[in-house]
Write a structure and sequence with these properties.
Blueprint lengths: L2 H22 L23 E7 L6 H11 L2 E7 L1 H9 L9 E3 L4 H4 L8 E6 L1 E10 H7 L8 H9 L5 E4 L5 H15 L7 H15 L2 E5 L2 H11 L9 E5 H11 L3 E4 L7 E2 L2 E5 L4 H14 L2 H11 L2 E2 L24 H15 L3 E8 L7 H14 L15 E7 L7 E4 L5 H13 L9 H11 L7 E8 L9 H9 L3 H4 L3 E5 L5 H11 L4 E2 L6 H9 L4
Length: about 550
């Protein structure tokens, strides 16, 4: 196994440990809410299923609470991206830690033949197709009839400059991967499972299609929040989202998003949310899982889940919730081999999508000396991978990476763009800058952030973000109030650049949470377990 692959698995495990520790510190509140009596205990307990779950299933709390009353089975979920979950399962790292999977799809897992022996009792619970949610005024301007729209028409609207959209990262989120497969299948004219030839045939059109993607995310929840926030910032919003039908309809109900939900006529990929037991789970857990799945497929549970989450029931006798169209759409096939799926992801990351532009604002004050600075160097070096690293395991081709280490002031600024023709040279240069980091000085968080935003003025057509890593609180330079005023005075286009702070060491969580909320970013935690900082930097990649 390559060093980078080991780093990737260590980062994923750090994310899982952090999620479990956060979960087990919560107060007991029914199924889907873990019990604090087992704080820090991730072992199996009779009647409780440890479930590795897709993040959007957090909306199933009400259904699971009722399931617990009916079956006596409590679900203790750990939320993670579907493709990351698949990697944990295929590597064997999920064995003994989880009893079941509840992912949006097991299709990617099926591409790994060796995982067959790890899975049993795969039971579809509900379904939701990939769909396009478009602002009503945009639908009117385009003259679209929602039930007649095709992916080709979406491509044409993007090419005409009339449509921009957000989508989750296909490398980490199954909604993004399903959308990528849907578009690639439709625009290539594939009549069966996608092949490498199909992807090559559609590359020009796919690149044109993804020119319209102006918002990316590692999770459906943050994508929805970013969409809502963008609509209030002049010039900063998109007018559509690509996501599961259920997510889009829930946005209309919960935040009055006003989206017209379109399932393109030429086909979609549908999530079937199978509840799947792991063969490594104790016998009692497998039996509990079978009781749970039997209840979830009962008419009572099927009615509740479609009405509460807008997913489609799999039991024919239960009517879908209002707003779920009954007309059929062609189900587009999943790639038949792992090589085709990975090739499609690689093409998306390094060729099709907009390039990334990221400023890493890095605390290298005196308090970072020793193990903390070593951990930072390891985490950043991990992101450089090698030019032969698997998709998603290194900085992308065309990505602009800026390092801004700071103490009392910003110490220096270095920028490198990963050259598609020679990625190794660019990655070596970043690695060298990381190795040269030293610790000294006080902690000027807000002044350094101001410099980061100032550097981004006049930026190009990229996915742009700022990552802030600090192990302390602001001790010198401008304070929170001054930064708030600075941020409010930025041009509208710059106010759409989020800051993703990382809680590490002795940093002030409240201070960093305010920065994330102010700028539309998200707070990441690197305080729990060995490799937690690796995991935080790895998770942020889905948002860049």
């Amino acid at each position: 196994m390559s060093g980078r692959r080991r780093t990737r698995q260590r980062a994923l495990l750090a994310l899982v440990v952090a999620a479990l520790c956060a979960a087990t510190s919560c107060s007991s509140g029914g199924s889907g809410t873990p019990d604090d009596r087992r704080s820090g205990d991730t072992g199996y307990h009779p009647g409780t299923l440890r479930v590795l779950a897709s993040s959007e299933l957090s909306d199933m709390t009400g259904v699971l609470a009722q399931a617990e009353k009916k079956t006596g089975v409590t679900v203790r979920p750990t939320y993670i991206g579907t493709l990351d979950a698949a990697e944990l399962v295929t590597s064997g790292k999920a064995d003994g830690t989880y009893d079941a999977l509840w992912l949006s799809s097991d299709d990617y897992l099926r591409l790994h033949p060796e995982t067959g022996a790890r899975l049993t009792n795969e039971t579809p619970i509900m379904s939701s197709p990939v769909a396009l949610g478009v602002r009503q005024e945009t639908v009117t301007q385009l003259g679209w009839q929602p039930d007649q729209v095709t992916w080709a028409q979406v491509e044409q609207a993007v090419a005409a400059g009339k449509l921009t959209y957000g989508m989750t990262d296909p490398v980490r989120s199954n909604s993004g991967f399903s959308a990528l497969i849907s578009v690639a299948s439709a625009l290539s004219g594939a009549q069966s499972a996608l092949t490498d030839a199909d992807v090559a045939k559609a590359t020009r059109r796919l690149k044109q299609f993804f020119a319209g993607q102006k918002l990316t995310s590692g999770s459906s929840g943050w994508l929805a929040s970013a969409y809502t926030r963008g609509s209030t910032v002049a010039g900063g919003g998109v007018n559509a989202l690509v996501n599961y039908e259920s997510v889009l309809l829930s946005m209309n109900r919960d935040s009055h998003a006003g989206l017209t939900v379109i399932r393109p006529k030429d086909g979609v990929v549908t999530a079937d949310y199978p509840f799947t037991l792991l063969t490594s789970a104790p016998r009692e857990a497998r039996e509990a899982g079978q009781r749970l799945t039997a209840y979830l497929r009962s008419p009572e549970a099927q009615r509740a889940l479609t009405e509460q989450t807008f997913r489609r029931p799999v039991v024919p006798s239960v009517r879908p919730a209002a707003g779920l169209g009954a007309d059929k759409r062609r189900e587009l096939p999943f790639p038949g081999t792992q090589s085709v799926a990975d090739g499609l992801l690689d093409s998306y990351e390094n060729t099709l999508r907009r390039p990334s532009r990221t400023v890493y604002v890095l605390d290298t004050s005196g308090s970072m000396a020793g193990d903390r600075l070593d951990a930072l160097k390891t985490a950043l070096a991990g992101l450089t991978g090698t030019d032969n690293s698997p998709t998603g395991d290194r900085f992308r081709d065309r990505e602009e990476v800026t390092l801004m280490p700071f103490g009392s002031v910003v110490k220096r600024i270095t920028t490198h763009t990963v050259d598609p023709g020679d990625p190794g040279g660019s990655l070596d240069a970043v690695r060298s800058d990381v190795k040269a980091l030293t610790s000294s000085g006080d902690t000027a968080i807000y002044g350094s952030l101001e410099q980061a935003y100032s550097r981004l003025r006049g930026g190009g057509d990229t996915f742009t973000s700022i990552v802030l890593m600090t192990d302390g609180e602001n001790t010198t330079g401008p304070g929170a109030g001054a930064f708030d005023s600075f941020y409010a005075g930025l041009p509208a286009a710059l106010r759409t650049t989020p800051v993703f702070p990382i809680v590490f060491g002795d940093s002030d969580r409240r201070e960093l949470a305010h920065i994330a909320e102010l700028t539309g970013g998200r707070l990441f935690d690197a305080t729990t377990g060995e490799g937690a900082l690796d995991g935080a930097f790895e998770e942020i990649r889905g948002y860049q």
